Amino acid sequence: MMFSVVILVHRLPTKIADCLRSLSEHSGNLIREVIVVNDGGPEEIQTMVEKFQNPWSLKYIRNAKNLGVSAARNTGVKNATAPYISIFAENYTIQPNHFQMAANLLEKHPVVASNVVTKGPGIGPKAINANYQFVIKEWTLTHGNAEPHGFIGVNFPAGAASSFRAEVFEEIGLFDENLKSSEDTDFNRRMDDAGIRRIYAPDILVTRWENETIFSVVKKQFGYGRSLFNFREKNKEQHYIRYEIKHGLYIVKRFAQVTKKYHVLPLMFITHFSLRMGILVGIIKKRLKSNRSKKSITK
Length: 299
Prior knowledge:
The structure is a single chain. By secondary structure, the chain is of the alpha/beta class. It contains ten helices and ten strands.
């Protein structure tokens, strides 16, 4: 039994049963333990989890308050005992042979990223899925080296729905708990610095269920932008307002070129505009703070 599976529960606790059922049906006796981390969600989640009949060891951990994705993931990773660690959220389900395919690839590669498809009612899931699939397509075109079971590269964005050798966390540490989001961006940057190559496996399909409206997606993208600004500050990167505007427009144009899905362009424009606005707010606040500091010094 080679896998410790970490499941974060917070936003959609009613979906945890579907996630656990999916793991039970498709684990292939490769799961040693499932570690459910309730990150400040309702106490009833424990009853839902413990009622579920499963063939593996089950660990349930509840944070009294929401500590964020990084802290919740780290709690799960610290409690994992298997040589391979898979990270999921409560709204994820898997397909047959998921862990067998991941195990086969982990023998050769330290990190395996799955193909995540978002489904659900309304426009929100369509926007999420279009953006994710574009990132995958763009990456495989520009960075990936194809092999029979996927695309290999240094800077592939691996995080949720990915499987890791436990030694990856031993080598570069855990997720940065100071980041409210962009934890995957930061973790991937550290993997890049360590030369850890990961493989994106399109045949390892994970379904992510969402019920977000376009308004909640916009709010979340704005938050991602603020967090991305903080991540860049951490890495002492420069920020330029003109660049952010031009790059946002370039992404939308590139989306049309790569995917040919012109009917989704308005959604892409809205989501990336929201992301860039989050970054721009961070830049403007930093400049205002810098100007106030300069004025106080001259006085």
